[in-house]
Amino acid sequence: MDIFLPKNVDPTHTAVVLLHGGAWRMGDKSMMEIFGKELANHGFVALAPEYRLLDESPWPAQIEDVKASIRWARTNATSLAIHPDKIAVQGFSAGGHLALMAGGTPDFSGFIGKEGNDGKISDSVAAVVAFFPPIEFRLNPPSADFNRASDLLGESATIEEAQKASPIFYVSEDYPPTFLLHGTADRMVPCTTSQRMFKALHEKGVSVEMHLYPNHTHEFVRLPSMLCTVQSEIALFLKRVVVDPEKYATENMKLNMFATL
């Protein structure tokens, strides 16, 4: 795990676990360096873990490793100078899928892994940020809105396994606050996936936001013109829903003349 620390140490800091993309088969934590530095500049502790790729271990090793990273952060909250209940996840593409899975399956026994834990350390998260995420697997996808189950689960995947690996099936009123970001010209993961996830979360009353970036394709966030702007948006989202929600709610009530209408 790579760790990016803000200049000022504060035990109430919020941590953000950064999850790289790569179709669950490629990539590593070094891809998260630019995002980790940006988040640290905004006062967050950013943590970029490795997770096993499919060539190393089959699903669900990937989400098991993500959850192990969350538990590790919570266990080491004091040394990291973070609040143990203020841990968010931010993922990109396949990492976005893992971030949404982490958000929807807190302390789910099926994803603890062989090492497991004694049940005393939770792997729940306070918020989710997902860029261009796959949200649903099908054996025979009817459209590009769905991912082929074999991409993650292999050719022998069943309908039940596909659903179990699909974030949209874990949507509930208890889902953590979520921010979805997507380019409208994304041909690898169509922006309709984020739109579907937004609709499902919104209908359950979850605090959910979505930003669609016109004419941008997959991985647009790495562009020099976009990186700082997008991470500033995410920083504000996390400050509003995790760092100090009361501050922003009070500000709205006091200064927005329409807040009480």
Output the strand order for the largest sheet: 1-3-2-4-5-8-9
Strand residue percentage:
15-25%
* Low-confidence runs: none
What would you report as the Rg, rounded to the nearest angstrom? 18 Å
Query: What is the SS-derived class?
Result: alpha/beta
Find the count of extended strands (DSSP E, 2+ residues).
9
Description:
- Helices cover 35% and strands 18% of the residues.
- With 261 residues, the protein is of the alpha/beta class.
- Strand 2 (13-19), helix 1 and strand 3 form a beta-alpha-beta unit.
- The longest helix has 20 residues, at 224-243.
- The radius of gyration is 18 Å and the shape is globular.
Core attributes:
261 residues; alpha/beta; seven-stranded mixed sheet; two-stranded parallel ribbon; 9 strands; globular
